[in-house]
Amino acid sequence: MTDEFKTISATSEGYYTEKRSKFLAFAHHVENHDEIKLILAGYRKKYYDARHVCYAYMLGAERADFRANDDGEPSSTAGKPILGQINSNELTDILIVVVRYYGGVNLGTSGLIVAYREAAADALAHAKMELRQVEEEVSYTFTYPQMNDVMRIVKDMNPRIISQTYDNTCVIRMAIRKSEAQQLRDRLAKLL
User: Fold this and answer.
1) Given a cut of 90, is residue 3 above it in pLDDT?
2) Cβ neighbours of residue 165 under 8 Å, at least 6 residues apart?
3) Measuring CA to CA, which of 66, 98, 133, 192 is 20 to 30 A from 36?
4) Are 150 and 122 in contact (CB under 8 A)?
5) Model pTM?
6) Nearest 5°: CA angle at 28, between 33 and 49?
7) pLDDT tens-digit series, residues 140-155
């Protein structure tokens, strides 16, 4: 398993039109289901007059938690093409919502698939992509006299410090790239 994944850093928008139907696409960086529910509720409220609010999301570095929703469109004509764009760009921690305003002319299943795919692709074309690391948390408890030895290892391995408490018993919580976590634990264990 790799300890890197690709995502987007900020919300981006896309647009597609076909036979007077308008497809507004929005790509969001998300990290959990609650965030997704909140964003979807916001779009359903904001675009209450739209015919469909379709979406797809992918969560987690393993890319195992995903969903595609057609929101009343014929089966697999909306959510799947949106999810296909997420997969073809190898993205995760992302939600793409496509809002459709019906233009009065039926597009047919192939027309819908193209429209949702292109709207999602346009939103991703305007997105800023970034590579992130999968981090693992390491917590270490030590005595005050060990401070210099611990800090030498921290300086050498450069983990992100989450919290630190310095008292009679000191505790430091760090996040480090998953592939380096065991090495950090091993080096700290040698100090005991």
Assistant:
1) no
2) 171, 172
3) 133
4) no
5) 0.78
6) 90
7) 988 888 888 888 998 9
Give the position of tokens 């590579």.
131
CB of 68 within 8 A of CB of 77? no
Nearest to 31 by CA among 59, 64, 3: 59
Per-residue pLDDT of 18-39, as tens digits, reads 898 899 999 999 989 999 999 9
Which token pair is 48? Answer: 């209450």
- d(C-alpha 178, C-alpha 132), whole Å: 12
Contact 53, 40 (CB under 8 A): yes
**Minimal CA–CA distance to 124: which of 50, 54, 29, 45?**
29
Pairwise pLDDT comparison (83 vs 135), residue with the higher score: 83
Buried b (16+ CB within 10 A) or exposed e, 142-178: beeeeeeebeebbeebebeeeeeeeeeebebebebbb
Output DSSP code: residue 104.
Answer: S
Angle at 28 between CA 65 and CA 14, to 5 degrees: 120
Q: How far apart are alpha carbons 55 and 38 in whole angstroms?
A: 13
Inter-residue contact 14 to 25 (CB < 8 Å): yes
Structure letter (DSSP) for residue 146: G
Selection from 155, 189, 160 nearest residue 175 by Cα:
160
